[in-house]
Each structure stands twice: as C-alpha cells, then as structure tokens.
Design brief:
It is built from nine helices and 13 strands. Strands 3-4-5-6-7-8-9 form a seven-stranded antiparallel beta sheet. Strands 10-1-2-11-12-13 form a six-stranded antiparallel beta sheet, covered by helices on one side. With about 300 residues, it is α+β, with helices and mostly antiparallel strands.
C-alpha cells in the first residue's frame, strides 16, 4: 500500500476541488457500486480497509460521480494475424500515476497502467482480453462511474469481447468515453459511452477524441483528433504494415504529441498482445515489456520532450 500512501494526497485534493458536498455521500456511492459492479464489493471493502478507511477514502474508491477530466488519446486494433491493441495516452505528466500493476484479485490476473489507485487506463487479463479508453470529446457530465474503474471491472469479470460489450452497455459512465476491446480470438469492438445516451457499439478499428462526429470543435482542433483518427484508421486497414509497422504509426509525428507544456503530450504508447498475454510500453527510443507470466518489478526514467 506504499503507492496508495504516496498518491492519495493528490487524489484527495482533486476529489475535493469542488468541495466535499459536490461528491455523492458514502451511502449513495457504495449503493451504486453494489448495484452495478457487485463482484467488486469484497475487493473494494478490502482495499478501503488497507488504505486506512474513512468516509472520504471510501467514497473516492467507488469512483461514483468523480470530478470531470479530459484527455487526448489514440487507440487502434490490428487484426491481420495475431491481434494487437495499441494506444497512446496524452495527459499532464504531473497527474499520471506512472505505475504498471500486476494484480491477482478475485481469482483473475490483470496487468495494466494504473489510475485512481485501483482503476486502469488500459489493461489485459489472463484470458487475453485487452481494453483501453479514450476521451470522447464532449463536456457532458452525469451520474456514472469514472471510466478507469469501468476498465478495471470489465477486465476482472469478462473473458471475451462479447462479455465486455455487455458490461459496457449496462454500467453507467459519468463522461463521454470510447472503449476499445479485443480478445484472444481476434474479436474486437469500439464502444461509445456517454452519460446522456445509450452505449453505441461499433466495429471501428480506430478511435481518438471524438465519436461519430466532432461535438467539441475546440478540443478536436487542439488535439488533432480528426487527423489522428485518419492516421490510425489507415494503419489498421493496411495489412502490409505488419505488427512493427502498425506500432510505429503510434510513435510517429502524426499521432505522438509533443505538447508537454500544455499538459497534452504523449506519456506512453501501450501495445497489448492477447496471445502473448503481455503489455509493452513504448516511447520513440525505447520500450519495456511486461509479460503476465514473467512480470519483473522495476523502475525506469524516460525523458519526454
């Protein structure tokens, strides 16, 4: 729990930035988790106790109606041969956990990049199911869970894309997000989530920071969402690229962002290989692979400029 002690003060400040009364009560938060993600209740209770308990921490850990946030990401699926899920994550480096977790919770092994202490930005489970998220380009906020906990939940309880889609259809999300999933059989889906409309399931192989159409023009323009989508979609449908060529597109200037001064630079690219059950984090000049079955703890410093 050393990482919890390290990260909790910053998350606490973020959780309270609109005031304590802006967040739902413990009873409402726990009821939402119990209703929509009942399988997580034993784990939730254990983690809250390990983290020191208390009303505020318990409310935060449900991820029910958290403060709003927006990111810029690209994600794509490769289905020409063994499947891959590749994504870039664009965000403020000072606000990123910078942590890859391998967990064995509730009888399932999951590897992924951490967010909100037990949520995930992207990940893979021991069935080879992989998932990642991207902000959907709308400012609408409503009742629902923070998307990192939704990613954690589907990787804990699902083994196939079909099962993951069923979860995404029923679990409410507090903002507009796009989730891409692919399983070991090469079945994939890109699901458009929003708090004010039903989930839309598509066969899209690429996603950036808008969904069917641009609904927040300023954000799409500043992040190059339309241009990045075209680049990733073209790569996903070009079988001549091969695995290496597909991954390289995410490290190129048309997708990789160097806008670090504005808190919108690419912090990492992640490549999930369902057959190998592995995660590889990539930067333009280096990479770091985390095999699920031979996970080696360590640390690494990467220069982003």
């Amino acid at each position: 729990m050393a990482e919890v002690a390290k990260l909790w003060p910053a998350y606490r400040a973020w959780f309270l930035w609109q005031g304590v009364l802006a967040r739902p009560t413990y009873l409402a938060s726990e009821r939402a988790l119990r209703t929509h993600m009942p399988e997580l209740l034993p784990l939730y209770n254990e983690l809250v106790e390990l983290g020191g308990g208390g009303d505020l921490f318990a409310r935060f850990m449900t991820s029910w109606c958290p403060p709003a946030y927006a990111t810029g990401c690209s994600q794509g699926v490769w289905l020409h041969g063994e499947p891959l899920l590749v994504r870039t994550y664009d965000y403020d480096a000072a606000l990123w956990d910078g942590l890859v977790l391998r967990t064995e919770w509730l009888g399932r092994t999951v590897v992924g990049t951490s967010d909100s202490l037990w949520g995930l930005l992207d990940g893979i489970n021991d069935a080879g199911l992989s998932a990642s998220l991207a902000f959907g380009g709308r400012r609408v906020v409503g009742p629902g869970f923070g998307i990192p906990l939704v990613i954690r939940y589907l990787l804990q309880v699902c083994t196939t894309t079909e099962e993951a889609v069923a979860v995404l259809r029923r679990v409410p999300c507090h903002m507009t997000y796009t989730v891409t999933v692919v399983d070991i059989h090469g079945h994939s889906a890109t699901v458009f989530l929003a708090p004010d409309r039903l989930a839309q399931v598509t066969s899209n192989l690429a996603a950036t920071n808008h969904q069917f159409a641009v609904e927040w023009p300023e954000h799409a323009l500043s992040t190059g969402s339309v241009e990045r989508l075209a680049e990733v979609a073209n790569a996903a449908t070009d079988p001549t690229l091969g695995h290496k060529g597909f991954i390289a597109r995410f490290l190129g200037q048309n997708v990789w962002s160097n806008d670090y001064e504005d808190g919108a630079g690419t912090l990492y690219a992640a490549c999930y290989a369902p057959h190998a059950r592995s995660l590889t984090l990539l930067w333009p000049n280096e990479h770091w692979t985390f095999p699920m079955d031979d996970f080696q703890p360590g640390s690494r410093t990467v220069t982003l400029d």
